[in-house]
Write a structure and sequence with these properties.
The complex is a heterodimer of chains A (314) and B (295).
Chain A lengths: L2 E10 L2 E11 L3 E6 L5 H8 L7 E6 L8 H7 E4 L11 H11 L4 H14 L15 H13 L5 E5 L7 H17 L3 E6 L2 H7 L2 E6 L2 E7 H5 L4 E8 L3 H8 L4 E6 L5 E5 L5 H10 L3 E8 L3 H10 L11
Parallel strand pairs in A: 3-7, 3-8, 5-6, 6-7
Antiparallel strand pairs in A: 1-2, 1-4, 8-9, 10-12, 10-13, 11-12
Helix pairs in contact in A: 3-4, 3-5, 4-5
Chain B lengths: L21 H14 L3 H8 L1 H13 L26 H10 L2 H10 L4 H8 L2 H5 L5 H34 L4 H6 L3 H25 L3 H26 L9 H13 L9 H22 L2 H6 L1
Helix pairs in contact in B: 1-8, 2-5, 3-4, 3-8, 4-8, 4-10, 6-10, 6-11, 8-10, 10-11, 10-12, 10-13, 12-13
The chains are: A alpha/beta (314), B mainly alpha (295).
Chain lengths: 314, 295
């Protein structure tokens, strides 16, 4: 367990940013997923001691809840969402200073800054002023800054913001490297579902400050329902839909261009469709299986009511 | 731990003390002047009064002949301002001639120290590291102090060492050993206090330019206002509403020097201390972690 929240509520005046959030984040990569304003950043800031919770309790690693915030920050690496750099520094100075402020001796901080900047792919540009960096390079420096003191937990707030496709892939690769290969706990806050789905083993879905669902991505996306899109020729799709109902098919409907949409239970075999179409005297021209993505889970959870309590906790 | 193919490796280190974490901030602040374009040149220009005094010392010692023999060379009448045995010799280039250099250094560096971090959102970087807001403030103050001290304490110190080395015997050292350390300590106090005031103003301002304008307005404005008050009330102590002048009076008292505007050094000390205490209290409120992030 890297992070544990119990009934965490954060309010800014009358605005409740996080409402009674309760979950535990296991080690590995965990996604905090939600739209802008869902309360993700507030949770990260509260964990870092930057925002005082209105109610509830939090625990990071095995440190007691009332541990010295500086000790917590020494063991946590934080990559903020917005651009925030110490003015006038180059990439190397920026990362080295962050290391020293985290308690690293100067010599080790300098050496480590070189290593980290090499890791994130800024070895050639490390002596250029950060003010002249592109968005992608700035994101990489922020990542290096979070990583320089070799923290146990990394909080990454929207790390792929403003990145081009290649930069995004590189950044997600780094996140995966941290979580899978190096065994660090990574909390990835993002509103981009694909990023979370690609890198995280667990996810917390948030909407309007509330936790909608939490758990392993595989559990959340593994649902009784799968969907087949079937294109047939030589038989009536409507009649076929009626015929397939009950035969492992939960719902069948005919959509645009005569495409048959079949919502099926887990374990349903595609051969059933072929057999049914063949029996009706037609042929299958197209068959595409659509697995439930994190996006479907998220949209489903939002549609089910953002006021609903957490569907599942880890 | 094995080195990974991507180049990452774990590090193990003994965390430095909270005090040691202040130094990187101070060093960064100290070097801020020299990161600026023309910063080094400006700093050297700020040393001009002391360098001028050094040249006069060399002339007096006869090492640098500025006039033909018999026409005053090596004997320039400057009173005790050019007497290396007088405290005024070391103080005059600073307390009288260095008001503008003081303004330049504090406006370009000290008063921007925290405001520039706030404007750039860099406070979030500091607050998410293992340092407290007070350590951050002390680091900024210490860096500003070192910069001012390099110009206004180290330079007179060089002047003193030069005068000692130019003397034909140890008489100069014997004559000044009891006085010059007091002068240097007084100047160090002046630098520390002015840095404290400037950094506190910086902590209150939302942007560095705003901080610089407020600082210039307060320091230059109070200088003029103090003079007006002195003429109106015929009271010397009124010039002490200017922090630099008040600080200067304290240094003169500490060095055992009778100033031109003679008034109680305690009034000056009280004024400077009061202003510093108020600014510090406001800065402490402004530099709370929650306050910084909310801004």
């Amino acid at each position: 367990m890297s992070v544990r929240l119990r009934g965490l509520t954060i309010a800014y005046g009358s605005v409740v940013a996080v409402d009674d959030a309760t979950f535990e984040l296991p080690k590995g990569a965990v996604g905090l997923l939600g739209r802008n304003g869902a309360g993700k950043t507030s949770i990260l800031r509260a964990l870092l001691g930057l925002v005082r919770p209105t109610r509830g309790s939090m625990q990071i690693l095995d440190l007691p809840p009332d541990a010295d915030p500086r000790e917590i920050r020494r063991r946590v690496g934080y990559m903020p969402e917005r651009d925030c750099f110490i003015p006038g520094l180059n990439g190397f100075e920026c990362v080295a200073l962050a290391g020293q402020l985290s308690g690293m001796p100067e010599r080790q901080a300098f050496r480590r800054a070189h290593e980290v900047l090499w890791l994130v792919g800024l070895e050639e540009q490390r002596y250029r002023a950060v003010a002249g960096y592109s968005t992608g390079m700035r994101q990489k420096v922020k990542f290096g800054t979070a990583l320089v003191h070799d923290p146990d937990v990394l909080f990454l707030d929207e790390p792929t913001n403003g990145l081009d496709p290649r930069g995004r892939v590189e950044m997600l690769d780094l996140v995966q490297l941290m979580a899978r290969d190096l065994g660090k706990s990574v909390v990835l806050s993002s509103h981009i579902l694909q990023d979370v789905e690609r890198t995280c083993s667990d996810v917390v879905l948030m909407e309007g400050g509330r936790v909608l669902a939490a758990g392993p991505v595989s559990d959340l996306t593994k649902n009784a329902r799968r969907t087949f899109h079937v294109g047939v020729e030589g038989c009536d799709a409507q009649a076929l839909a009626l015929r397939l109902r009950g035969d492992g098919v939960v719902a069948a409907s005919v959509g645009e261009r005569g495409l048959l949409q079949l919502d099926v239970v887990e374990g349903f075999e595609a051969s059933t469709v072929f057999a049914a179409v063949s029996a009706a005297g037609g042929v299958v021209r197209r068959l595409v299986e659509h697995r439930r993505s994190l996006e479907d889970v998220f949209l489903g959870a939002v549609a089910a009511g953002s006021g609903a309590p957490a569907a599942e906790t880890v | 731990m094995a080195i990974y193919t991507r180049g990452y490796r774990d590090v193990s280190y003994q965390p430095t003390s909270a005090f040691a974490r202040i130094w990187p901030i101070a060093r960064h602040e100290l070097l801020a002047m020299f990161r600026m374009r023309f910063g080094a040149i400006l700093f050297l220009l700020c040393l001009a009064p002391t360098v001028g005094q050094l040249i006069l010392l060399l002339v007096r010692a006869g090492l640098w002949e500025v006039a033909p023999e018999g026409r005053g060379g090596g004997a320039i009448p400057f009173g005790d301002r050019l007497d290396p045995a007088s405290p005024n010799f070391y103080m005059w280039p600073i307390t009288t001639m260095s008001f503008v250099p003081f303004l330049v250094l504090t406006t370009l560096v000290s008063v921007r120290a925290i405001a520039k971090d706030r404007a750039a959102g860099a406070l979030e970087i500091y607050w998410t590291r293992a340092i407290s807001p007070w350590a951050y403030f002390v680091g900024k103050w210490y860096g500003s102090f070192l910069l001012l001290a390099a110009a206004f304490v180290a330079a007179p110190c060089v002047l003193w060492l030069t005068s000692v080395l130019l003397a034909p015997d140890w008489s100069q050292l014997e004559a000044t050993i009891g006085m010059v350390p007091r002068v240097l300590a007084g100047l160090a106090w002046l630098c520390a206090t002015m840095a404290l005031l400037a950094v506190s103003v910086s902590a209150l301002a939302p942007t560095p330019n705003f901080a610089a304008i407020v600082w210039l307005f307060v320091v230059v404005g109070s200088l003029g206002f103090g003079q007006v008050l002195r003429f109106a009330l015929r009271e010397n102590w009124t010039v002490a509403i200017n922090p630099w002048r008040a600080g200067k009076r304290v240094v003169e008292w500490f060095a055992g020097f009778t100033p031109f505007f003679d008034y109680s050094p305690w009034a000056a000390l009280g004024l400077v201390t009061g202003i510093a205490a108020v600014l510090l209290a406001l800065a402490a409120r402004r530099l709370r972690v929650l306050e910084a992030v909310a801004s």
